[in-house]
């Protein structure tokens, strides 16, 4: 066996991901040493409660509640505690004491990324976070390195497994949101408090991270437009299926205009996706990131977006990279945010829409609706009219639009609602993927 | 504008890929400088004929036939000439004169990879080759870095666009191989001499590169079992469709057994893929690499596997990485081949098969066939029998097997052919993807 240099690895957190990382580090120690060119010595694991029951067997003597002492003696610090504090302080301490850091903490990076990257830049350390954007799916290196010579035009990502699981079951089983959510909670696909997932907060954090990388721009979380899936019901799902679409919660990161007016938009919302689009076949709790780049064309990255052992794979890949860098020497490369493109609010974005209305089934109603749309600069691509209700006095209009400005569209929908001929605005959904 | 350090970039070749690389290097010079942290100065382009007509406008004074002189003054050398010589000598010269090298040359890496990687190791240089395995699809970094802490169990890749285009059209249009090939040649999807593609040589080179990376093992091209698609006809396509499969040319890289008996198999052949498998929806000239890893689970990488500008994207990503490494300092990381697992011949591989036979439609024939299979240690999973021919004296048997050893299977098929009850062995196809 080769006599490798030893690198001291400190692990912060031994929960769903951390416990798997600890176990793989020990189980594959020899193989990892060959690949990294260094022996990765786990010097300790910081937790809140050293006596808490754990899924995997961890040597009692490695556990400690004293994270600070652990960090100071480490070459590589892996942060898998989650949350903002003390994770943020621990990462800064690690960087300033000369360690390279690995983290899966999307909440922290989406809010304090620049502070952490700057600290690393100051001392020539490197921050690795492959697991923070799409779990086990390698997406950070592709965006940061493989596409570094290209120009990303658009990213459309299914980056939250819980919501994809819920929407997929609503689609395939014709079930209602609340029933599937309850089932998902029972099966462990959704948390007891599902807000972070179903309201799109988790996806928005990932969108901010992906957009920062793709557009070489600092993207504050507040600039990400966010809508969740709680408004999606069975009738919307059925209508989408009927029209050849499926509803997916998408993180969309888009480059707008060109030249001096160049800007970007970052948004998370449920959208209609054509069933022939590769994203439409992403089922269950899987994730996928679809990337359109100027030279490379369309790329898609698919896999498990979460799960303890799956995410641990991405974390360990980062640990090996950090170790190789320690052996190779040299300073960290840092994040490139020099483009710093302006981020436009949602009102300035153009997409296609599908508007579903219930109207009085009387002559002239369609003409009135069409007039309001055209006055609002929303151009109609197609309309389907069906009669609903026992009395046959109500018609349902499903209107597909050409690309329109979000602001024009929402003002127009308000005017439709107030027009007197519209009984109810059933739904307004964006269409993505073309 | 930041005053960056300059790095001298030499380009060898200005064909389909090289001309696009030259054009993007010049077009996006400022942006690339920001991302790389260095100004990438194209100091010259080596070609065979400086006066040859080119697709893109290249400044006449950059073109030269003297590759050697160009290389000696460069920090980064991009090899896009193709072929073994002089590409091999040029890369070695570049490495030994202190440059980092970028290449898309799968033929060279699959045959002389170890020599080139060793030379780089000696001087601490780095070899980048993202474009050599699947064109624009980022697959090298994911395998080499992102999955470095995991254990790849199997790769199934659609890594040749020409054959996927042909098989896809045969599948969707019910056309014959020769007709689609002729059309593909007319449309530029296939070369005038299509041998490298349709006989699987191109895919075998890529399989060798992917397997080397995935299993940390030197995989000589000769150890890759290779079959092409020229034997696939319309009737096989129709039968596959009928049974819920599609035929794809797959590069399969597989880890076999465990523990001390651990070994790998690398093979390229047309195989039946279930229509529900993500690889079945890879259409046209697109490529995709499906990776199964112990911890990460199933991952898929999808995109354009060829094309001048698409491939140029991957090459430029490598150039930016090489530049960042020049700035950061430190020695190259090198390839990890320390696992060096034994590579088993095709006879030792187990897969499922689908065997199609024409037999005399007489009582007892099925029993005879079943007996020969069971004597040969090939266990039957399902059989479909249909009557064919005007006289109704011939029956067609489609036999799906459980997993069997390739050697047992091929001996058994020989015995079937010689048994007297079998009129014709119509086809024997492997089933992959489960
Ligand atoms: N789970 C996934 O599938 C997944 C996927 C992608 C990314 N991530 C990210 O990975 C990170 C970890 O996630 P997880 O699911 O593993 O979390 P988790 O199961 O909640 O585990 C958190 C661990 O950190 C420890 N910890 C928390 N606060 C601490 C403190 N103040 N001091 C010391 N230890 C502390 C906990 O200690 P005790 O065990 O003693 O309570 C626990 O071991 C998060 O940033 C998450 O967003 C997770
Ligand atoms: N095309 C793709 O889609 C693709 C995709 C992935 C990888 N690749 C790989 O990329 C590499 C380049 O492919 P390509 O399609 O761009 O090839 P190509 O169109 O045939 O271009 C080859 C270029 O190299 C020059 N060249 C060849 N031999 C030379 C010599 N002895 N001295 C000086 N210059 C020489 C040629 O000069 P002249 O122009 O003067 O003839 C030409 O400019 C190959 O290794 C290929 O396998 C290609």
UniProtKB/TrEMBL annotation, chains A, B:
ACT domain residues: 354-433
Domain of life the protein comes from: Bacteria
Co-factor(s): a metal cation
Record keywords: Amino-acid biosynthesis, Methionine biosynthesis, NADP, Oxidoreductase, Sodium, Threonine biosynthesis
UniProt catalytic activity: L-homoserine + NAD(+) = L-aspartate 4-semialdehyde + NADH + H(+); L-homoserine + NADP(+) = L-aspartate 4-semialdehyde + NADPH + H(+)
Record flagged with keyword Amino-acid biosynthesis: yes
EC assignment: 1.1.1.3
Physiological role: Catalyzes the conversion of L-aspartate-beta-semialdehyde (L-Asa) to L-homoserine (L-Hse), the third step in the biosynthesis of threonine and methionine from aspartate.
Protein name (Swiss-Prot/TrEMBL): Homoserine dehydrogenase
């Amino acid at each position: 066996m080769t006599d490798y240099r030893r690198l001291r690895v400190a692990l912060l957190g031994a929960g769903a991901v951390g416990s798997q990382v600890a176990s793989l580090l020990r189980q594959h120690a020899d193989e990892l040493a060959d690949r990294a060119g260094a022996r990765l010595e786990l010097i300790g694991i910081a937790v809140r409660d050293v006596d808490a029951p754990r899924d995997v067997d961890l040597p009692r003597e490695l556990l400690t509640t004293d994270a600070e002492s652990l960090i100071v003696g480490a070459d590589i610090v892996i942060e898998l505690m989650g949350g903002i504090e003390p994770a943020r302080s621990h990462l800064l301490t690690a960087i300033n004491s000369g360690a390279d850091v690995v983290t899966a903490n999307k909440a922290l990076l989406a809010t304090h990324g620049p502070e952490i990257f700057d600290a690393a830049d100051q001392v020539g350390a490197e921050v690795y976070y492959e697991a923070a954007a799409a779990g086990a799916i390698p997406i950070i290196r592709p965006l940061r390195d493989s596409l570094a010579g290209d120009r990303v035009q658009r990213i459309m990502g299914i980056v939250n497994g819980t919501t994809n699981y819920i929407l997929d079951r609503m689609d395939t089983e014709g079930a209602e949101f609340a029933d599937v959510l309850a089932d998902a909670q029972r099966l462990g696909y959704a948390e007891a408090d599902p807000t972070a997932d179903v309201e799109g907060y988790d996806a928005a954090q990932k969108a901010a991270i992906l957009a920062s990388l793709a557009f070489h721009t600092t993207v504050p979380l507040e600039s990400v437009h966010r809508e969740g899936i709680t408004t999606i019901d069975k009738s919307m799902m059925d209508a989408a299926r009927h029209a050849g679409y499926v509803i997916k919660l998408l993180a969309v990161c888009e480059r707008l205009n060109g030249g001096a007016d160049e800007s970007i938009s970052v948004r998370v919302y449920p959208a209609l996706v054509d069933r022939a689009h590769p994203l439409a076949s992403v089922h269950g709790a899987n994730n996928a990131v679809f990337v359109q780049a100027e030279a490379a064309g369309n790329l898609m990255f698919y896999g498990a977006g979460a799960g303890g052992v799956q995410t641990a794979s991405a974390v360990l890949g980062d640990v090996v990279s950090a170790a190789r860098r320690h052996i190779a020497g040299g300073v960290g490369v840092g994040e490139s945010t020099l483009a710093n493109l302006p981020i436009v609010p949602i009102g300035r974005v153009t997409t296609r829409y599908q508007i579903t209305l219930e109207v009085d089934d009387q002559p002239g109603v369609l003409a009135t609706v069409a007039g309001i749309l055209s006055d609002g600069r929303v151009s109609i691509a197609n309309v389907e009219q069906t009669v609903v209700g026992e009395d046959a006095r109500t018609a349902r209009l499903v209107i597909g639009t050409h690309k329109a400005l979000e602001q024009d569209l929402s003002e127009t929908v308000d005017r439709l609602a107030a027009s007197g001929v519209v009984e109810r605005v059933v739904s307004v959904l964006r269409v993505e993927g073309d």
